[in-house]
Amino acid sequence: MARAVKKSWDTGLIDIGHDCYAYIQSGGLNVSNAGLIVGPDSCLVIDTLYVKPMTQAFQRSIAKVTKKPVGQIVCTHHHADHTLGLNYFPRHIPIIAHRYMRERMIETGLDLAHYRRVNPEHARHLRGLKQHLPTQTYDGAMVLYLGKRRVELHNLGHTHSKGDTMVYLPKEKILYSGDFCFNFVTPATFDAHIGNWIKQARLVLKTFPLKTVVPGHGPVSDRRVLEDMADYLSLVQRGARKQFKAGTPAKRAAKEIKLGVYADWMKPDRVEQAVMKLYNEFRGKADKGISLDAAKGG
Questions:
Q1: Which of 3.40.30.10, 3.60.15.10, 3.40.1440.10, 3.10.310.40 is the CATH number of 12-282?
Q2: Is the pTM of this model over 0.85?
């Protein structure tokens, strides 16, 4: 059963224990989260947010809890709301990501004009920025160590995007999920493989001991956010398949799906991009994405 929907949450750095932190933001389109793990000599940052004011607020929050330098940055995927903040970190810091994330950054490029259109409130901060590509990539999985602390990087194939990374601390049972999880926010699916996303979410629930989940969007949660993600995507998949078999056009089909409690999540209209994406999957074109314009900005 889905949880009661939380409508608002505070922006700021949250101590989740074990020298681990979640930087949570409230708001709408392209307002994402980030993470911080403090090691004995340096810190690991997970994602860098979107525009300058967001990233600098995150950096000020880091400075309040530690004087240790940022030694590494892990990017969970290539979308601009998680990577444009790289413009405001020193260039010498290694940037770690899955190799498909780097490839997707190169394939998609950086259309700042698009982001100015969909986020006019940030337009002045969306000029003169560059893509900063990962400097170190991996396949499958990778392990980092901060002193004796084990930090695992996992790619579970094409889920929210082709190059997703989840950051997992097995001893602490903390998962920084990136956009593999959205909490009380309807997931963006324009770049996804929804069928595999459902499968892998259920696999993570079975195989990863979890106490704390830091989602890519929304407040800090626990394993229930994964349950909700799998259930929401499954609900939409079932509804879309029924409409697809009936020959209903995707945009009209999206209006026929009863979302129940999920209709109260932020940006429920994203069901339309999910149905369009699922129609591609049903046609055997799972790798075909939905354009940002067709997805109404993301």
A1: 3.60.15.10
A2: yes
